[in-house]
Each structure stands twice: as C-alpha cells, then as structure tokens.
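ugh ok fine here u go
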Amino acid sequence: MQIPPPGPPLLLKNDPKRPTALVARDLGVSQEQFIACFANVNPSPQGTRPTSERVHANKAVLLSCLQRANPTITNDGLDTVMDRYRPGGREAQMPVR
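structure:
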C-alpha cells in the first residue's frame, strides 16, 4: 500500500467528483472532448489558490482546445460554465497575490 505524500490532496486529471458530463453539455462539446482538453490543464492542489500565471496558462490551454471542438465558446462563456461547477465558484479561482 502506497502512502500519499503530506500536504493537500492532489486533484486527479479525471476527478470523479468533477461533473464532466454537465460541463461538457453546457459548453456544447462531448464529455470525451472536455476530458481530453482538461487533461492538459494543471489545476492547483485542492484547498490552495492558483497563481495568476497558472490561471492564465490553464485558461489558454483549455479555451484553445475547446474552441477546436466548438468555435462558439468564448472566454466569458467558459468562465461562466466552469464557475458554475467549480467548488467555491469564481472566488475559488481568484489567484493569490
């Protein structure tokens, strides 16, 4: 049995708590497309705030990938959908200063 390292639990790329089917539906992409695009995102460990650099890098990766699947997705639209399903909403995504 492997003992996890100390510190906040890591967020798995395909976290079973993430409602990928709902996020995908609201973005107008398939669940598989959303999961594939999100696999390239580097979220902050659970319970921590992202840096501004991490927020911008993740957004660039996710938005550009999702727009290949659905060109009508906008930055604001992606924010609205992700905030809807993110634990803590938009506030949880506000970067540390």
